Amino acid sequence: MKNASIAAFLRAGVAPVILATALFQAPLHAQDNAPQADDGANDAIVVTGSLLRRIDKETISPITTVSSEDLAIRGITTVQQGIQNLSANNGPALTNGFSANGAFAGGASAVSLRGLSTSSTLVLFDGLRAAYYPLADDGTRNFVDLNTIPDAIVDRVEVVKDGASATYGADAVAGVVNIITKREVKGLHLQAEAGVAEKGYGANQRLSATYGYGDLAEQGFNAYVSAHYLKSQAVYNKDLGYPYNSDDQSGICHDGVCGPNNIANGVDPSIGYTGMNNATATNVFMVRPFDAATGAGTGRYELLNAAAGCRNLTPYTLTDQEYADNATAPHTVCQQDITHDYGQVLPEQQRWGISGRFTKIVGDSGEAYLELNYENSKSSYTGLASIIRANAPAGIDYSAYSTSTGAGLLRLPVYVCARGTASCDASNGTLNPNNPYAAQGQEAAIIGRLPTSTEYNESVSQVFRAAAGIKGDFGNDWHYQVDGTAMVSKLKTTAKGYVYIQHLLDVIADGSYNFMNPSATSQETLDYLTPTQINHSKTQLYQGQASISKEVFDLPGGPLQVAVGVAARYESLNNPSGNPDYDGQTERYFRLNAFGAKGHRDVESAYFELSAPIVEQLELTAAGRYDHYSTGQDNFSPKFGAKFKPIRELMFRGTFSKGFRIPSFAEMGALPTTGYVTQSIGSMPQEFIDQHLNSVGTGPNTYLTNYSIGQTTVGNPNLKAEKSRNITLGATFQPLNNVSFSVDYYNIKKTGAITSVNFSNAIANYYATGETSYDGVTVIPDEVDQEHTGSQRRIAFVQGSFINANTIKTSGIDFNAMGKFRLSDNITFSTSIDATYVIKLNTEYPDGTVEHYVDTLGNFNLTAGSGTQQWRGSWQNTLDFGRGSISATAYYTDGYNYSAEDQGGTAGDCSLVPTNYNGDAYQGCRVKSFISVDMTGTIKVNDQFELYANVMNVFNNKPPIDATTYGAYLYNPVVGESAILGRSFRIGAKASF
Question: Distances in Å between the alpha carbon of 387 and those of 282, 446, 975?
C-alpha cells in the first residue's frame, strides 16, 4: 500500500523546488554569491539553497559558483576534478586514485565538504536528488558518483557552504553541490583534446559534440543533444621516479637517518638481511617441513625448486652471520620489489555518455523542459600476484578461514588423490610430486604468491536519468515550479585472479597445480583456481516535488515572500555480497569482501521558506522542512538567516540551521565489511614491539613493518539519524564594482554520529592483556611470528557493529577575494583567491574523550590516513587579450604533523612518524606543505575556432613524502593525486558553428 501510494503521488508530479536556474556569465573562478540572472522573464533568479526569487545577487548563505569557463581556464578536464579542487573539500574525499588502492567504492569519486565525510555533502543535478552509487564509501557511506556528471552540458556548479537540510532534507549537513546543466544551446559545438605526462605515461583523450536548435527568446523553444568520450591511461608505480616506484625506502633520509629497505627478502643498510615472514612472500615458492604435532613449520625454508632458482627474481645469498641470525631463512633467498612490479597509481578510466534536453516556453511566463542522460563509466586496475597464504575477510555465516595459522596452515600433503577423494593415503594415492619431503612422510609448509595470475578489478557503471519540469506564474503574482526525476544506477564489478579457497585446497590435494613449475599448470586448473567473480548492483531514485511562492505584501525594504512545497521520493539499493560463505567456510575467495547491503524506503516531505526585507538594510529569512521515512525516522529541520547591509559596499550575513543525516542502507543492514588499516610502529606499545625484534635486536622485524588490521563492521537496524547544528557568520566587501572580498566563519556540530564501536580501545587492551573480547569488540589474532614463535601474535581482525555514539565538531573560515582590471582597450587582468582555514575538527566519545584531527593524519581510519590539512586554497590569475588569454593557477595544501589521535598519542606528538628497522625516524615530524601551478593558454583563430594548451604542474613538483598514509604509496592522494604524474601537457581545439 505504501509503495502504491507513493507511486501515485509521483505520477501526479507533486513535490519541492530547489532548482537553481541562474545563468552564470562572469569569468572568475569560485565566485561567491554571484549567480546571474536567468534568461527567462524578469531579472529574478533562484539560487541553490532557496525556493524564492530574488533580484540582488548577495545571498545570505555563502555560495561559491564555478562555471564551465572557470574550469577551462584552469585546464581542468572534468567537473569531477573541479569539485575535488574546492578549498572546502577536505579529509575523507574519495578520489579516482583510491580505486587503484583497493577502495570499497572503486571506480567512483565523491566530495567531502568540511571534512565531514562523503555522506554529509548532498550532490544535486539541476536541483534534484541523484541516485547513490551502488557501492558505499568504506562499505558504509552513501554518496553520488561525480564521475557520472555529463561534463559537456554542465553550465556551472553552485556550492552552498552551510547546512541546507531545511530546503533539501537529509545529507545536506556540510553543504550542497548543485550541478546545473545548460538551459539552452545553439548551433554545433565540437571539442577535442589529448594530453600526456612529460615522461610519456598517463595519456588521456577527450572528445565532445553538442548540437542545439531553436531560440527560447525568439522561437520559444530549444532542443539540444550532446555526446562525450573520455579515456585516461593507467599509471603504475614503476612509471614514476624514485621513491614512489620502489619498496626500498633507504634513499629517503632525514638528518642523516634513512628509511628501511622493504623489498621482500631485502638487505637493509642498517641491519642487513631483513628476515623471513609471510610478509616477504614472493612469486617463487619456498617450503619447510611441517610438524603435525605443533601445527607449525619447523626448520629452515628452502626453495621449492632449487634447480629453477629464483627465476626472474633477484637471488641473494645470506652471509654466515645473517644465516646464523635468521633461524628460518635458507642460504639463498629471492628478492622482489612488490610495489615496482605490481603497484598502480591511477586506474585506467573510460567514460562516455549522451544527453538531450528540450525546453519550451509555455504561455506568457511558463517554461517546461525534459532532459535525458545516459552515462557509462569504466574503471579498472590490477593488483598483486594472487595470494594463497592469508586470512579470508570476515564471513557472514562462518568464521573467517585462514591458511596462515592454526589447523588451516597451508601445506602440501604427502599423498595426492583424484579430486573429491575423502581420505587420501598410501592405499589410494601417490606421493606428491610438489612436496620434497613426501618420501620422508612429512607435509611441507609453503609460502609464496602465484606467479601465474594477477588480481584484476573492473567496475562498469551505467546511469540512466530522466528529469522533467515546468515553472511559471499564475493568478495574482503566484509562482510555481514542479519537477520530477527518475534515475537508475547500475554497477557491474568483475574480479579476476582472486584465489577461491576451496579450489586452492582441491588443487593442492589432487596435485593439479604444479608448484614445482607453475608455468606448466594447465589453463583448466588456473581457471578453476581463480574463477572470475562478477557482481551486479543497482540503486534507484524516483522523485517528485512542487512548490509555489508569492510576494505577500510590501515591507519597508521590499516585498515579503513566502514559499511552500511538498516532495516525495522512493530510493532503493540492491548490492548482493560478492563473496558470501553461504555454502561453507571455504566456499569463497581470499581478499574479496563479504560486503553487501539492500533496502528501500519512501520519503515524504513538506517545507516552507519566507524572506522579510524589514528595511532596505536588513533582510531576515526563515525556512523549515519536515521529512518522514517509511523506515520509521522523521525529522524537522529549521533554518534562519539574516543579512545586514549598512552601506552599499559592505554586507554582513549569518545563518543558523539544524540538519540531519539518515543512516545509510549499509549502516543499517550491511553484511560484514572489512577495511584494512595500516599499523604504524608508533601506534604499538614498546612491550609488544620488543617481542618481535629483528635479527640484530635494533628494531621491529618484517612481521610488524608490513602490518595491517582488518576492521570488520556489521549493520545495525536500530540506528537513529545523525543530527546537526550549523552556524555561519560572514561579511562581504565590494569597494569597487570590479573588486570584492568575502570572509565566512562556519561552525558545525553533529551529534549521534554513526560510527563503529571503538576499535582502538580494544586494540590497546589486546596489546596490554592479550584479551580477545573487549567492550563489544572481538579481536582475532593473526599468524605466529615465525622468528619469535612464542611471542604475542599481531592482530588480524577486529569486529564490531555500528552505533550512534559520537559528537563531531568542526569550525573554520572561508576566504575569497576577486578583482578584474582593464589594463588597456584589449587587455584585461583577472585575479581570484579562494581559501579555507580549518580551526577545529574533533570527535567526542561518550566517555568524554576528545580526539583532535586538524593538522594531523586524523581521522586516520575515516580518511585512509589522508588527514585534515589546516589550510587549503588556490590563486588564479588571467590575462585576457581579447582573442587569446594566458592563465596561471596555484594550488596550495598545508603540511601536517605525523600524528593521529585515533591511532593513540596526542595531536602534534609525531607518534606516527615513519621509522626504519632500528626504530629511528627517517622523516621529520611534519609532512611538508605542497604547491603546484597549472597554466593555460588560449587563442581564437577566428570566430569559429579556438586552440588551447595546458601545462599542469609547471614546476614539476612531486607530492611531499608521506610514508604513513595508506591511501596511496608514499604520498597523500587527496593532496597530490594529479601532481604525482609530474609535469604534463594537454592540447585541444574547440569549434562552434
Answer: 10, 12, 31
